[in-house]
Amino acid sequence: MRVAFGVLGPVAAWDADGNTIALKGPRHRAVLARLIVARGRVVPVTRLTEDLWEDPPPGAVGAVRTFVAALRRALEPGRPPRTPARLLVTDGPGYALRAEPDAVDAWRFGRVVTGAATLPPADALARLEEALAWWRGPAYAEFADEPWADAERARLAELRLHAVERRAEARLALGLAAEAVPDLDAHVAEHPWREDAWRLLALALYRTGRQGEALAVLRRARTLLVGRLGVDPGPALRGLETDILRQAEHLDLVPGSRPDDAAGRVWARATAAYDRTVSSGARTRLESTVGLLRGLAVSGGGGLEAAGEHRVAAIAAAEELGDAELTARVIGAYDVPAIWTRVDDPERSARVVAAAERALTALPPGGHETIRARLLATIALESRGTRSARGLEAAGQAEEIARRLGDPALLAFALNAVFMQTFHRTGLAPRRDEIGAELVTLSARHGLATFEILGHLIRLQARAALGDFAGADRHAAAADRLAERHERPLVGVFTRWYAAMRLAATGSAPAAEVEAAYREAAAGLEGAGMPGLERGLLPLALLCVRVTRELPLRAGDRVDWGPYEPWVRPLALLDEGRRDDAAAALREVPDPPRDLLSEALWCLTARAAVAVGDRDTMERARVALTPAAGELAGAGSGLLTLGPVSAYLAGL
C-alpha cells in the first residue's frame, strides 16, 4: 500500500486512496514524526525514549515498541501476520521509516524548490505554486517545543520563505508583477528582515507603474532594517533605489536576467518588435510558433509536454485556414528528435497522424517533395510502438526522398523515423547501431547538434543491448558533453538511467545500491514532461533487479506497474504462491508492444511460462526471442536489463 506522509502542518498520513490514516495518540505521532526527521536513518530505541520523555519512566522502551507496533498496523493494514514490516522497519538497535522519496511532503518540497531554480519561469511558477499549497500550517506543528524537531522546523521554515520569494521572481519573469505585489506585501510585513523580499516588492511595484510606492517601500525597508536590526540595507537594495530614481533601462528587462544579460535584452526587444510588426492574424505566426515549440520541446522542465499541447493547437489552427501547404509546413516543421518508443499521449499522436495524412492527400500533385518527406517522417514517429504497417512504410518513403534530395536536416529527421520503426521484431540492435552511427556522422558534419545527441543516445542503447558497455559509456559521455554545450537538460534523464542500468548489469553492486541508483534516476523524471517514459518504469526496473538476482519480487497489489502490468502480473502471482492464478493470467497476456522493452517483457513472459508449464506461451516466447539471442534483454532501452536473452531461451 502506498502511504503518504505530511509534516508541513500537523503530522498526518494518508493511504493510496487519499484517506486519512488514524495515527493513535500524541506519542505515536511523535514517534512517526521523529523517524521522518531522521530521513530514513535508524533512530535507536534509547534515543526515541529520550526524545519522547524528559525523564523516561520505567518501561519506556516497551512503550515505544508498543507505539511502533500500533503504527505498523495503521500504516500496513494488509501485511500478513509475522511478516517483516516494509515501511516502519526494525534495523539494529532501533527503527527507521523506509518511505519513498516522494512520500513525505517535506522531502518533496525540498526537491521541488531546489529543482525550480533550473526551470523556465512558467514551469517554476507552476511547481512552486503546487509545492506551497502543500503547507497546512507550521512544519511539525504539534512538536514546536520539541528540541529534536527544532533544526528541521527551522530549515523548512527558511525553505518556505525562499520558495515564496522564488515564486514572486517567477511571476516577475512572466510579466505578472501585479499578481506578485499582494503576496510580497504580506511577506515583508511578516518577515521584515528578508532583504530580497523587499527588493522584489519594490521591483514589482515599479513594473506596475507605481514608482513612488516602490521608492517608499525601499525607504521603509531601510527604516526597519536600521531600526530593528541595526544594519544598513545591502548593495542590492541600495542599487535598486538608485536605478529606480534614474529609471534604468534594465529594470524593464525580463527579471532574473542580469543587467548585462545580452540574451535577455535581445529576446525582450525582438519579441516586442515581432508583436508590433506582424499582425496577430498573420499566417506566418503559426510557422514562427512551431519554431519556438521546437526549442521549448528540448528545454526540459515540462517544456516537452507544453510543446506537444501547443503543437496540436497550431495544427488545428492551420487546418481551419484551409491552406494545405501551410498545414503541411506547420506539421512537418516540428522535427523534434525522439528516442523513446512509447508516445507520451497516444490520443494526441493519433490526431497528429490523422492531420498529416489529410495534409498529404490535400497537397497538389508534383513538387513539395521536402514537405512530403517531413509529413511521412512525422507519421512514422507518431506511430511508434503500434502494430500498424503504415509507420514502417512511411519511414521508408521519407528516407528515400531525403536521400534523393541530399538534404542533411531532412535525412536526419527521416533516420529518426526509421529508427523508431525498427522494433517490428526483436534482435535489431545492430541495425539501430548503424542508424545511430550515420546520424552522428551526418549531424556532426552539418551542425545538427540535437540530432547528433540523438545519434549518440541511439548508439548508447544499441551498444548496451550488445553487451558493449565500454562503447555505450563513450556515447553516454558524448551525449552529456553535447547536452551541456547546447543546453539540452532532458539528455541527462537518459544518461542517468543508463548509469543505474549499467550498475545493475555488471552485478558487482549490492541490490540495495542498484535500487537506490534507480530511485535517484527516477527522481529526474519528475516534471520532465515524458509520461510515456515515466509511468511504471521505476517499479519495472526494480523488479528486473530482483528477477536477475533471484530475490523475492515484492510486487504487491498496490504497485502501479503502468502499461507493463499484464507482463508483470503472472510473476507477481507466482511470487505469492498463487500458481493457478498465475497460469490463468498468463493465458491472457498479449504479445508485448513493439518497442524498446519488447525483449524484456518477452523474457518476463518466458520466465512465468516455464514456471507454470505453459508450453504454448513458451513457444511464442521462443519464436519472438530467438532473433535476439545475442543481446541483453531490455538493455537496448538504456534503462534496465534482465540479463542475457540466451539464458531465457535456454530455459525455454
Q: Which fold name corresponds to the CATH topology of the domain at 1-159?
A: Arc Repressor Mutant, subunit A
Share of helix, binned:
55-70%
Biggest sheet record: 3 strands, antiparallel
Poorly predicted parts: 254-261
Shape: flat
Q: Please state the CA-atom Rg, rounded to the nearest Å.
A: 29 Å
CATH architecture of the domain at 1-159: Orthogonal Bundle
Total DSSP E strands: 7
In round numbers, the mean pLDDT is 89
Spatial order of the strands in the main sheet? Answer: 3-5-4
CATH class of the domain at 1-159: Mainly Alpha
Q: How many angstroms does the end-to-end distance come to?
A: 34 Å
Number of helices: 30
* Assigned CATH superfamily of the domain at 1-159: Winged helix-like DNA-binding domain superfamily/Winged helix DNA-binding domain
Strand content: under 5%
Structural class, judged by helices and strands? mainly alpha
